Amino acid sequence: MAICRLRSLFPLSKCKSLALQSFPIRRFSSSLLENVGFIGLGNMGSRMANNLIKAGYRVTVQDINSDVISKFSQMGVPTVKTPYEVAEASDVVITMLPSSAHVIDVYTGPNGLLQAGKVLRPWLLIDSSTIDPQSSRNLSATISNCLLKEKKGDWKTPVKLDAPVSGSVIAAESGTLTFMVGGSEEAFLAAKSLFLSMGKSAIYCGGEGSGSAAKICNNLALAVSMLGISEALALGQSLGVSASTLTQIFNCSSAHCWSSASYNPVPGVMEGVPSSRDYHGGFASKLMAKDLSLAVESAKQAGCKYPLTSQAQEIYSELCMDGHEIEDFSCAFRHYYSGLDEPRGQSKSK
Description:
alpha/beta; Rossmann fold; N-(1-d-carboxylethyl)-l-norvaline Dehydrogenase, domain 2; 15 helices; 10 strands; elongated
């Protein structure tokens, strides 16, 4: 299960203010979505759960970090101790966890979601973790063999969707994530309002495991892009061109990309991104290394070439071994390429 750090959770003062505000309660087209369980309250999950609460859903939360649970409890949010208790209180359960092993444990381990055997209360289980497609398919197959305690609308058996997200912690907080969803298209359409309470878009990718596969491909492209931008900016510095100048060029030319325009890796170039906070509060290098390992394994199974994937995996694994595993993945600019901070007084990208 997610091991959360208090400093990465939204501030307690903010939690309290959210709890005291009168948010408009949304009207649901179906009562099947009202009671939502959320498991995994890390950097992303805590903010996703908070957006569900703001949207008017009845949310029950669970995490192994008692301090984080205490903060939600202080907001008046129901908390329980085990995934099984979440299942018993919910029509829909969402999980947001670090790895395939954590997801499998939450579903099938002691006191897991499936503790009751082949009879479940939730009609829909959504896993927003980034895991390998085969594990996602296996869990979907297991869920499809279960029965519902009570018929929910037209649903006689429970269904699972894999729905990993794209977007930073900032996007999770602002509710602008993108969901990549695999599984039953009918279930996707039924749950789309739930996704749009946490994100700006939800894209149907195909059958079971397709969402997980899409996320692996997305993060592969992101990792290679970040390394390419970092390498080019570090080279530019060595050749006498400032990172600010190169960033302006990239952002209005053929090199334009998210890693340069929205998540620049050079400290001092852009405000509000991890590089401006000594690479804290972003997407950890260890998580990128994990996702690249999933991409390597998927490429092997598919019989595809993966030279860039392999090189990117090696770089992020090296960063982790050098002690930078919890720093944002954009720290490759400083710790792998030995890039320099932008001197004070240079123009900054907004």
